[in-house]
């Protein structure tokens, strides 16, 4: 039987994922810092015009010899030798094969000390990103044989309690009717003398509030019928002269020639008529608006004197009915209590034998359905650990060839610099210098630039222009060297005489 392993919980998986994100963020910050340093070096790097001929190279060597003790190191000679672009950043990339640099020995002689430069190839350590195989623990599904409980239906015998009928002898009480003598309270009539109050009607004088008629002078508004002048819009008849066209028949006097026919006969006519259009005057009746003064009825509000009947309060003496309480003798029939012997029905309790049906409990054997726990074979999917072959990034230390230039003094110390006497270039004063910066180098002719580079034995190193790798490509950057003797300061320029 396979052993099951504890599966990682979602909380554990979340913690591992957070650690991976933090590591990637740190690597991203380091990569951004590297990019920022490269950009600063590019911005602070002065644009220098390199030499393009052998004579200019000698001038640059002389300038490098003159500024060889800049800041107490040998950077000036190495920079004037024409190999500044080959070692920016401490020998960064391996573009274009071996990298040329100058290795200047420390000397305190005069800058006119004769000597010569000699090239030497050395091996410089570097780091290369490689992928190496590794194993990663994964979980793969597997099947495990287990036994799970299953309920199987069965039957079991039980005793069931039932009720069966039976008879039981009992004594039950019975009420028997009997007559019992008792004394009954009765009421006997009697007469009693009493005094009762009686209300006697009388007349009492009183004052009554009454309303007496009276007259009051008032002014009331009255609408008076009047006539008001007004203008009424009416229609009056008028006549308008119109001209209508009419065709009239007019006679044409004289003989009129109409032509000849094919036999030569001439046709003429007399007294012809023609239509003439004339304009005939006609008077047409129409209605035009006008105003007529009329009188229309209206109302005018006036105040008229009038007398109004009102009622004012007054008092009148009247006699009202009232009652007076007096006492009058009278006989009243009352009932006094007395006792009378009577026989009343009553009940007597006796016990009588009777039989009662009861239910007694007995047991009956029955089979009822039941279930039994049994173990059934089953298969369960589990996750077992396994190892997966993956590739992880690693850094490998490599050695790359670098060309350096070393200064060797001549044995004859009395040999002086001949100036420009050994100049052998044929370009003259119209020679165009080859730029060192990659931005200016892309604008020149590639064939001419290659020919000049082969003549001057200068190799251009553009490793600082390489693309910076993303965090996904390189999570672990190579170790940064502690000191770099060949690194040039960003504010360096050639010396001028």
TrEMBL record:
<dbReference type="Pfam" id="PF16086">
    <property type="entry name" value="DUF4816"/>
</dbReference>
<feature type="compositionally biased region" description="Polar residues">
    <location>
        <begin position="482"/>
        <end position="497"/>
    </location>
</feature>
<feature type="compositionally biased region" description="Basic and acidic residues">
    <location>
        <begin position="448"/>
        <end position="470"/>
    </location>
</feature>
<feature type="region of interest" description="Disordered">
    <location>
        <begin position="414"/>
        <end position="497"/>
    </location>
</feature>
<protein>
    <submittedName>
        <fullName>C15A1 epoxidase</fullName>
    </submittedName>
</protein>
<keyword id="KW-0732">Signal</keyword>
<dbReference type="InterPro" id="IPR032134">
    <property type="entry name" value="DUF4816"/>
</dbReference>
<feature type="signal peptide">
    <location>
        <begin position="1"/>
        <end position="23"/>
    </location>
</feature>
